[in-house]
């Protein structure tokens, strides 16, 4: 994966496939570190599967025998001195947390986080995506359900809503990042 936004997209799409109706994406910026967490209430995994999930030859797909999303995430985090943690319980859901040293020369770029997060929210109207971002005392939270409530019947999947959501998230990211330590 070329950037962190693609990792978020990959994990969130796996959450959708796992039957989740709620997916939380959290970005916590501290000093030179970024903690990225994606949690869902999907079908979850047993302990054995969690133990093997970062092996590229472990996948739930039947169309091919490799799954590279989590192995690449682990590699990208570890090459900056970070790590990943995976917590999952059958019937309860899965959480993936990755820690990156954003000042490290080998840290992959963030990519277009605003477009990715907006696409997830507007592309899956049946799922409540909750987006949280925080740096210092500045934090931002928005959910698909909140947006749908304000729209009063306009579908969240409408293209103009997608542009609005993307621009709102983009401004919040810019504001949070300007809030230096």
TrEMBL record:
Where do the Histidine kinase domain residues begin and end?
1-104
Enzyme class, first EC level, given as a word: transferase
Q: Does the keyword ATP-binding apply?
A: yes
Q: Where is the signal peptide?
A: none
Q: What is its EC number?
A: 2.7.13.3
Supply the alphabetized keyword list.
ATP-binding, Kinase, Nucleotide-binding, Phosphoprotein, Transferase, Two-component regulatory system
Q: Can you name one GO molecular function term for this protein?
A: protein histidine kinase activity
- Cited InterPro entries: HATPase_C_sf, HATPase_dom, His_kinase_dom, Sig_transdc_His_kin-like_C
The protein's matches in PANTHER family, at most eight in alphabetical order, are given as: PEROXIDE STRESS-ACTIVATED HISTIDINE KINASE MAK3, SENSOR HISTIDINE KINASE
The protein in question is named: histidine kinase
> Which species is this record about?
Marinilabilia salmonicolor
């Amino acid at each position: 994966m070329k950037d962190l936004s693609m990792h978020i997209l990959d994990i969130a799409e796996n959450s959708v496939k796992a039957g989740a109706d709620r997916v939380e994406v959290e970005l916590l910026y501290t000093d030179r570190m970024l903690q990225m967490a994606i949690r869902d209430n999907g079908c979850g995994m047993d302990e054995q599967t969690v133990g093997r999930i970062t092996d590229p030859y472990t996948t739930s797909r039947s169309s091919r025998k490799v799954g590279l999303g989590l192995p690449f995430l682990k590699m990208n985090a570890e090459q900056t001195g970070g790590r990943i943690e995976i917590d999952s319980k059958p019937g309860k859901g899965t959480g993936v947390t990755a820690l990156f040293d954003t000042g490290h020369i080998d840290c992959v770029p963030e990519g277009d986080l605003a477009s990715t997060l907006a696409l997830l929210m507007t592309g899956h109207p049946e799922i409540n995506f909750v987006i949280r971002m925080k740096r210092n005392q500045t934090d931002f939270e928005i959910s698909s359900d909140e947006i749908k409530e304000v729209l009063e019947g306009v579908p969240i999947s409408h293209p103009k809503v997608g542009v609005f959501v993307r621009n709102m998230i983009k401004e919040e990211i810019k504001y949070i990042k300007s809030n230096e330590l």
